């Protein structure tokens, strides 16, 4: 009897922990969407399709598998001056930096973009964002 | 009870008048008006201009004669509203792809950086060609004066602004006779829908 209760208790804790992370992830997705529309959609478009050969797409791209997430976080924060390859095509219009975006903003943005366009729809945690930004080239 | 009878011909007449009125919807003439010597109204007109386009060719009011065109002000390194404006202009470019009576005229407000080569590269990446869509550069003071006085939009340098320039995201619709017939917010899709409707209307004039 006690055993059964203990197992049940552990299960409940397990579920609630998991859903707490999921709740955070979903909050990040919602906040990230607002941030995306304010800071990114002008060029990359609301649907992530990019603008012709001028600005690269984010949706349906190899970016999510090919480029490290920490590297993308740094590009968002500090901009991109060099040419970047997306789906085998070079894009060389410079991307402006976003100095106003803090680690939390970038965690939310990355989580939102992952949710929409990456096969890996997991949270990009605040810790990951902090760590990435601290180690930008 | 007395019955009121309206003859059918009267109904048809009223119907035709209403229909006629609707068809006569005309776009306004914008800008300061003057009274001519004969007491007629002289509408605001875009003066003569001459700029270089992305193919190193001169573009002037002569190239716009008999055409309607959409004018805007931008710069290629603009991080804020220009990409939005270009997205919307591309819609217009595609919509009137088969119509030689329509032109787009985009003036750079950063002519020092946006030379012919930069504009050519930009045009190539947007997959657009002249003369349907001219990206033009010239003397900065000429561009700013034309923007402010003739197209009635703000365009100036401002070190405090992101990208170094302040400018409005306006699209200006100019008719076949160099009159301004509409000003729209080029960053808003609904406003540009309105512009496209007005262009269709203007082409019928």
Mean pLDDT of chain B: 89
Q: Largest sheet of chain A, order of strands side by side?
A: 1-2
Main interface: chain pair and counts: A-B, 11 and 16 residues
Question: pLDDT under 50 segments of chain B (min length 5)?
Answer: none
CATH homologous superfamily annotation of chain B: Glutaredoxin
The Cα radius of gyration of chain A reads 18 Å
Find the CATH topology of chain B.
Glutaredoxin
Q: Identify the overall geometry of chain A.
A: elongated
Give the ordered list of helices and strands of chain B: HEEEEHEHEHEHEEEEH
Structural class of chain B: alpha+beta
* Average pLDDT level of chain A: 91
Query: Radius of gyration of chain B from the CA trace?
Result: 21 Å
Cα separation of the termini of chain A: 57 Å
Fold blueprint:
The complex is a heterodimer of chains A (137) and B (205).
Chain A: H1 2-39, H2 41-44, H3 63-66, H4 69-78, E1 84-86, E2 89-91, H5 103-117, H6 126-134
Helix pairs in contact in A: 1-5, 4-6, 5-6
Chain B: H1 8-23, E1 34-35, E2 41-42, E3 50-53, E4 58-60, H2 61-64, E5 68-74, H3 82-95, E6 102-108, H4 116-126, E7 133-137, H5 140-150, E8 155-157, E9 165-167, E10 170-174, E11 180-185, H6 189-203
Parallel strand pairs in B: 5-6, 6-7
Antiparallel strand pairs in B: 1-2, 3-4, 3-7, 5-10, 8-9, 10-11
